Amino acid sequence: MQTKKDEIRKTILEAAQKEFLIHGYEGASMRTIAKKANTTLGNIYHYYENKEAILEELLREPVEKVKKMIDDHVKLQDDLYTMAEMQELLGDLDNLMDYHEMQCLLDERLVILFDLRTTHFVKIRDDAIHKFKQHLAWHLGMDDDDSAYVDIIMNTFIACVRHVLSEHKGTEESKKEFIKVFKVLCAGVMSNRKEEE
Amino acid sequence: MQTKKDEIRKTILEAAQKEFLIHGYEGASMRTIAKKANTTLGNIYHYYENKEAILEELLREPVEKVKKMIDDHVKLQDDLYTMAEMQELLGDLDNLMDYHEMQCLLDERLVILFDLRTTHFVKIRDDAIHKFKQHLAWHLGMDDDDSAYVDIIMNTFIACVRHVLSEHKGTEESKKEFIKVFKVLCAGVMSNRKEEE
Amino acid sequence: MQTKKDEIRKTILEAAQKEFLIHGYEGASMRTIAKKANTTLGNIYHYYENKEAILEELLREPVEKVKKMIDDHVKLQDDLYTMAEMQELLGDLDNLMDYHEMQCLLDERLVILFDLRTTHFVKIRDDAIHKFKQHLAWHLGMDDDDSAYVDIIMNTFIACVRHVLSEHKGTEESKKEFIKVFKVLCAGVMSNRKEEE
Amino acid sequence: MQTKKDEIRKTILEAAQKEFLIHGYEGASMRTIAKKANTTLGNIYHYYENKEAILEELLREPVEKVKKMIDDHVKLQDDLYTMAEMQELLGDLDNLMDYHEMQCLLDERLVILFDLRTTHFVKIRDDAIHKFKQHLAWHLGMDDDDSAYVDIIMNTFIACVRHVLSEHKGTEESKKEFIKVFKVLCAGVMSNRKEEE
DNA sequence: CATGAATGAGTTTTCATTCAT
DNA sequence: CATGAATGAAAACTCATTCAT
């Protein structure tokens, strides 16, 4: 039955996701995943070629979505935000998250991606972060993409995505939490630029 | 010779620190540490009871310092910062890092601590973070220690400590970097509170 | 449908034969055989009790034929070849292979048999080889069945059967190739005996 | 102690050689090798990086010797043997094997090489065989290196090396056996060429 | 008949740790 | 003190085989 197969595939995937979150991909054990998925070690290999294949299926969707989000952002090529626009944006922040683009960030699986130390996803992740940082730098009118500000924003962004996801799993609450984070973050950057002007 | 013994202890410790940073404590291999310390696997066990003992010695100092820093902060019981005081603080931020208390945060070993997934240090770390968050909440006049603002600050703090340490290893540059981060962060929180007032 | 059943049996058998040839019986994988036979792993077990049963069906025919060939040869108890007879035989060698007895040697499945390291066929094979060697020794007037000459002929015989089968799969070409081999071989043995006489 | 280490290395190597001969490299089990070497599975990995490393150490010497033998033969570029020279060679065959070049062929480890189905040694082996066949073809004045005669000789050569080694392990007896084989083989080829002339 | 999910023992390999020398 | 041989458990993965549907 295909129904059952898909169900077990999903069960394995969910068990793997949990284990990857707790112990990291590298530290997670296939045996434990099998146990938590109520199946045997060998049987997992009927569904996934190997450990990395599970990671692959787990990360495919969120990675593609994030990639698309970044690409869409970059393509827009919208002008630098003026202070006024920035403030307007902040005021309307509550609606920001309704913007479908941002939704992809509230995905638990991204935490797994952030913690990866091996596999080709490391490069994918770092490339995506770099791209995003470059665009962010242009967005904020920075000359050097290695500028501290960009790094700060980027790291805070990631740190908060991670935190929001691990502590407030419900999507609705997560969204609100994320908005708050983003608001404070933007306020910080803005007031800093104001000082410099 | 006690000198030589101490030297080897130190060499092992340094090799372990590098390996722990790259692969994480759990992912680091005693064999590799032995090789990088130019000694043998078995000899490490003359200096350290086991893998965790190395971690213990490695983290003792930074953990105690951070603990002390938090305790000192809490004991001061200084009043809530008024907006004015806060702004004054920000203006003088360049001297902030000279404050010996903060120096302890620029320690590479804290990154290892942040990434830990096993051992009793996880509890120590989480307790310390919780304590700091509680104090931070009181500091900022928040009623709930789980408030988003505190989490934001906390996470940004950690994320930036991590980043500053991994990208700018020289202490001097690190300090400047850290100050920038902290400045933006405070500015954000402050402007946010101003809005609310 | 019995027709279909037989067809699938045959397909499995052919897939197994290919795999056994490439990786050897022991190294061949049931999964791969299933895939190459366009069926499922489980379904193979409806046609064959286990892996060895496939080998059994695969080797039954060629083994029996070879056994019969050897027995027939032994039963003939024809006299020792004189040098003259031997030379006559060689002259007529091109017709030798038309002799139906020999045809059984040009069977790809014998290569699988030669490479076997497990199962009861090992004994069957070794017994057959031993019998053939004994008869060959008698044929050539050797006193000791372990004589080098017999071993040489036997091994060359097998080696060439193997080679002819793996390089020239078309039966017609194989036949010619085999004749050449046999001719040279006999010439060698003969000229050697001549020397000794 | 280095003495003991080398001894155990040797013990493991010998156990591996036996197992490889019986079950083939691919079919041999590290567990069994460990047991037969009176050590533990894990301990083998102190001496050899992996299974293939054992094969590597096992085959290095015989492979290099055979390669050298072939190269030396090819470099000589000696003329085609005339029939007379060939016969002289045959008469002096008993001394042929004293020729140090040939000694390398009487090595049990070559049987392991011949039976290999995986690892890079397959290419090394096939390249060496091809080189030898080409030279042999030139030696015998054949125009086509794929000629049946060359294949015959080559296969017989290998088959007999294999047989001699597996049945007559004592070097002295092996040598005599090998000479007989070679004699018959040459006689066969020679008488065949005579016929053609 | 056919499917493919399931199993359990097998494989090679790595690891932290112990111990005799 | 130092060495490195030894150990045993656990890792990822494969395999022949079974069985419910």
UniProtKB/TrEMBL annotation, chains A, B, C, D:
Q: Which UniProt keywords apply?
A: DNA-binding
Q: Which domain of life is it from?
A: Bacteria
Write down the Gene3D superfamilies for this protein, in alphabetical order. Answer: Tetracycline Repressor, domain 2
**Which part of the chain engages DNA, per the record?**
29-48
Q: Which residues form the HTH tetR-type domain?
A: 6-66
| One Pfam family hit | TetR_N
Annotated protein name in UniProt? HTH tetR-type domain-containing protein
